[in-house]
């Protein structure tokens, strides 16, 4: 997606955590929402946000 707003990305990851792999600018909030929806989305969390899940 070219017009990725925070709101659009949040809606996507809340519906399907796997969508995190397509988010260009991850935030801690987006990562948490994605992993909450699907624990396997942790695979796509950027290294700088992995500490959130330790």
Describe what you observe in this structure.
The chain is mainly α. The chain has one domain (6-53). The protein has 2 helices and no strands. It has helices at residues 6-15, 28-37. The radius of gyration is 10 Å and the shape is globular. The N and C termini lie far apart (30 Å).
Number of helices: 2
Average pLDDT score: 95
Radius of gyration, whole Å: 10 Å
Annotation, overall tally of beta strands: 0
The domain tally reads 1
Q: Mind summarizing the main beta sheet?
A: none
Oligomer: single chain
Straight-line distance between termini: 30 Å
What structural category do the secondary elements indicate? mainly alpha
Low-confidence stretches: none
| Overall 3D form | globular
- Element order: H for helix, E for strand: HH
What is the beta-strand fraction? Answer: under 5%
Percent in helix? 25-40%
Compose a concise summary of this entry:
This protein has 54 residues and is mainly alpha-helical. It is 37% helix and 0% strand.
Structure keywords:
54 residues; mainly alpha; 37% helix
Per-chain topology:
Elements: H1 6-15, H2 28-37
């Amino acid at each position: 997606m070219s017009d990725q707003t925070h709101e659009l990305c949040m809606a996507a990851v809340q519906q399907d955590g796997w969508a995190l792999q397509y988010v260009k600018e991850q935030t801690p909030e987006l990562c948490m929402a994605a992993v909450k929806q699907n624990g396997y989305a942790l695979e796509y969390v950027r290294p700088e946000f992995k500490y959130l899940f330790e």
